[in-house]
Amino acid sequence: MVSGHLFYSRKHSWPPDEYVSRATLQLLDFDDAAPPQQAWRRRLNSHANRLKEFNVTFREAIKMMRLGVRLWSYVREEASHGRKAPIDPFTRENCKPSASQGVPLGGMGGGSISRGFRGEFRHWQIIHSLCEGSPIMANQFSIFISRDGGNKNFSSVLAPGQREELQKLGDQGISSWDWNLSGQHSTYHALFPRAWTIYDGEPDPELKISCRQISPFIPHNYRESSLPTSVFVYTLVNTGKERAKVSLLFTWANSIGGTSHQSGEHSNEPFIGEDGVSGVLLHHKTAKDNPPVTFAIAACETQNVNVTVLPCFGLSEDAQVTAEDMWGTMAHDGNFDRENFNAGPSEPSSSGGTLCAAVSASTWVEPYGRCTVAFALAWSSPKVKFQKGCTYYRRYTQFYGTSERSALELVHDALMNYKWWEEEIEKWQSPILKDEKLPEWYKFTLFNELYFLVAGGTVWTDGESLAADEKTSSCSDHKHEKIADRDAKTTTPGKNSMSISQVDHITASTTSSDDEKLASISFSDNELAPANQERSKNCVSLHDDREHVGRFLYLEGIEYIMWCTYDVHFYASFALLDLFPKIELSIQRDFAKAVLCEDKRKVKFLADGSWAIRKVRGAVPHDLGTHDPWHEMNAYNIHDTSRWKDLNPKFVLQIYRDFAATGDMSFGTDVWPAVRAAMEYMDRFDRDGDGLIENDGFPDQTYDAWTVHGISAYCGCLWLAALQAASTMAHRLGDHAFAERCRRRFLKAKPVFESKLWNGSYFNYDSGTSSNSKSIQADQLAGQWYTASSSLPPLFEESRIRSALQKIFEFNVMKVNGGRMGAVNGMYPNGRVDESCMQSREIWTGVTYGVAATMLLSGMEHQAFATAEGVFISGWSEEGFGYWFQTPEAWTVDGHFRSLIYMRPLAIWAMQWALSPPKAILDAPKINMMERISASPFTPRAQNESGLRNFASPSNRCFDTSFFNCEC
């Protein structure tokens, strides 16, 4: 056990008055201008150190040499077709990763822009799957201050000095601006989805400034949370004896990151909107046939605030109005000419030039007075186009139409609604922030890890894809017609092919002979069958979009470009289920549909060079694809994931958890055939008939570089949990035959699992004889984690669960830098890190959070928070490595990261789930299927074909009889 004072137990770990004076906090303590006590903080003059990237050892490089050669060839082949490979370790960003990130802008799925803690706009992901990491330095907020008498004038960009760096780059434009902010008395405070920058007397010692950044991320609000917009609210407090004229300036380049601003054909256009909202539209024509983007920058004019614009200025010396000219005008006048609003659209820019725009908001602040100025940014790129042809409308177009000019309405509504957004955000966050039992670091880390749902490359569409030849349409009344699927004209499937809609109507509860028939069903070798074929009017499909939330994608990580990677979603999905459950159910329906599909196109798997079909029926796909999501799944091609042992159990466990948490019987009924198919598929991996699945001597699991032999603690535990969950779900749905089948198999498998792996204090890594077979795996109780999270009976005796967790805590956590790094994946019983492969020696941030959640569910609160705190210390604290708002998949004991901005750390929400489970979980029927004795023997066909009970849907529609084998 750990003794001594632990950081996690402190009441106020980061008190704000250590960063901002108490007097300033009191002056700003109105209108949410002061940051909350529970926030992550940095001083603006903090050094943004370079991050150290992971490298394989010589031994690992030798073992992976053949894989590396094949991967290199595959990356080059994809590049020859103009595509980016989903995994490309050979290409590095021009911008070296640094400890500079902050809260990203915008809602989910409309593209995102991150904003560093020092104020720079960076990590552009307006075009899906493309992340431009470098900041655009012309995008800035600046301030100009003059006082009565004219003897006190101040001007500065509101970001720490960059003049020397800009001059080195040869930039004769913005290097002429005043970069006078040292950042010594300025601080950044983050509590996603909001952030505060406090300028405590900088650049004017008598002016206190708060900039509050707000984005519409509101749990359970599926409208506002899809909007690509953010608001910046400046609160100005004059502590001087003279009134001050303050002009705030917002400058923006017509660019989506990278060098796109120099590609030409862009234009800017000033506007005066309703309710005093005025600004500039920046129309950006993207390269490579990507959909266009329109930005809107605006400020809200009031009785005390005057808004003016400069629609166009350039960064080169030959521009008609240069950046230096623009700055000179502001420094002299504090505003632009009102006539600029009448300028109309500019001429399209020429290639090589950079077109920028500026919005100024000016006000007088009386002595000891205060004033508020609000700016907003919005961007509109209505279409999402994937490289293999499918195009979709984004979710927000349901409310704002499909014109790029909707950016104007977005920016207007943001300025009108941001106070309501904040009220809703505070209602959501307040109970957790006020919970005195929770560590301070946990509170702000919990919320800040949600950054990934915005900055993780999310795409949120309004439904099905557009026709291939459909042109963009503008809808002034905010309505647009649903377009038929691009593949609607596909010919009728032949003898050996079947559309997804047909597969949807096949029950998975079949006899073995039926299963053999289904095994012959596949898609054609050339193309996946259409996903939007017309269905019976009286039936509900797996994706009838009954909840009207569209379809949602998020990347595994910005370096692993695969959508909704399922073995990782297993960890991350607690955040979606807790905050946006309808999105979680939508993703689950996508995978349920995929389970029953087969795609016979051949794929080369790079680990061993073998060929196999892309998608096997009954196998849960690794991901929903890369270049044609939903239509071409399994972009991952290192291993054949139809042979992985964790994907199917993870699917069953997530389905049951979601079913239990939402109490949605229609969801349970819809996906049940896929659950049965997924369970039945796993029969092939029980080769000795002992009820347990066996691993096949290669990395056939989420740890895809860590070989497993025989029965494994990780996959075996997941399998036991899946048997229990499937049995319970079958019972609740009335499929008693299958419930009994799973129950009997569980009772057969459990003693085998324990006899082969339990060593008296923990479960061995696997039942093989390799050097690491007795390693202590941090993730060995993943199945028990889900069992407890779903309020199912424990898989093992409580004493064994606690013993294994205590062993993990003492060895994997505390023996690595005193518990200050998280839980290392593998540890030998002698206390030495398992270095048998790159992943065994890594600390996985999301796994650490999952282990901590399992500890909480087992009543081990002390160990849980001490374990999770290691991720905070290494990733988020000032003494750590600088991974805030870019939490990586992994780091090593010496602090080298692998894969920044990664999905799995969202698993911190599994800790919150354990601390505060939803009512539906608490009230779920307490059924211990493993101890039930069947009332009478029956065969699988005793009740009906599947044993499924009939359910009447709320809308009085009946389910398709061929899909559910029920009579209406």
TrEMBL record:
EC number of this enzyme: 3.2.1.45
Highest taxon in the source lineage: Eukaryota
Comp. bias intervals (Polar residues): 490-501
Record GO biological process: carbohydrate metabolic process; glucosylceramide catabolic process
GO MF: beta-glucosidase activity; glucosylceramidase activity
Basic and acidic residues: compositionally biased ranges: 471-489
Chain ranges of the Glycosyl-hydrolase family 116 catalytic region domain: 550-911
Residue numbers spanned by region Disordered: 471-501
Pfam family, one: Glyco_hydr_116N
Gene3D superfamilies: 1.50.10.10
Domain Glycosyl-hydrolase family 116 N-terminal: 102-421
GO cellular component: membrane
Top-level enzyme category: hydrolase
Keywords per UniProt: Glycosidase, Hydrolase, Lipid metabolism, Membrane
Annotated catalysed reactions: a beta-D-glucosyl-(1<->1')-N-acylsphing-4-enine + H2O = an N-acylsphing-4-enine + D-glucose
Function: Non-lysosomal glucosylceramidase that catalyzes the hydrolysis of glucosylceramide (GlcCer) to free glucose and ceramide.
UniProt similarity note: Belongs to the non-lysosomal glucosylceramidase family.
Protein name in UniProt: Non-lysosomal glucosylceramidase
The organism of origin for this protein: Acorus calamus (Sweet flag)
